[in-house]
């Protein structure tokens, strides 16, 4: 069974100026532990596709299955990282990362240990007790990434997570993401409009065409991982 199976997916938004076809007959299979990047012009349906896989948005037609089970809403096996970090401003870095673990019923000691591990992984050990407003954009994004990783979802869905960062921070986070992906083996679905980033990260690059949101090409990136 593929990790994610998308069949004849379509999405039509009823916009102010009539219907907008965001996805049309999208078919895609993503295997376990695969790292897939989706590129394409703005408005081609990348976020719509991610949101439907995440269970945050409903399809107009077709289906998405994870581990052979149809997606009907959000699930703990799928973690999402957005471009805007969506941190709780009144919680410290540590409490922000611990929050998702609390929701999943982890005990206090395990929560703390896991949160600290992932905060260290993203290089924010010295900022565990800082509040989001004390952090730069890049640092906030790292907290959002630590929060998603800490839950250890089997599928990581990322919507331009590094889009707002400067080149150096982006390169650093790309490297961390790849390192984690290699050691912890997740299935990654990563949206970017940066083709270079897609090629650095992905084993498979999915190119979507402008209109109406369709997969134009799937490119296998055959670089050996270190
Ligand atoms: P991308 O992520 O590739 O930029 P989106 O998935 O955000 O593309 O959008 C795909 C298309 O659907 C665009 O034409 C966009 O304007 C439209 N769209 C997205 N969300 C909505 C919405 N809530 N209502 C109406 N149209 C929408
Ligand atoms: P942005 O992308 O918003 O510029 P960065 O992550 O590049 O954010 O960080 C901006 C500032 O925060 C820089 O001055 C950097 O030195 C500082 N900074 C970032 N991470 C750390 C860290 N782990 N420890 C200390 N300072 C940091």
Automatic annotation (TrEMBL):
Residue span(s) of domain ABC transporter: 4-226
Q: Which GO terms describe its molecular function?
A: ABC-type quaternary ammonium compound transporting activity; ATP binding; ATP hydrolysis activity
Keywords, sorted A to Z: ATP-binding, Nucleotide-binding, Transport
Q: Which domain of life is it from?
A: Bacteria
Q: What is its EC number?
A: 7.6.2.9
Q: What class of enzyme is it?
A: translocase
Q: Which catalysed reactions does the entry list for this protein?
A: a quaternary ammonium(out) + ATP + H2O = a quaternary ammonium(in) + ADP + phosphate + H(+)
Indicate the quaternary assembly.
Answer: The complex is composed of two ATP-binding proteins (OpuCA), two transmembrane proteins (OpuCB and OpuCD) and a solute-binding protein (OpuCC).
Q: What is this protein called?
A: Carnitine transport ATP-binding protein OpuCA
Q: Source species, please?
A: Paenibacillus contaminans
State the organism's lineage: Bacteria, Bacillati, Bacillota, Bacilli, Bacillales
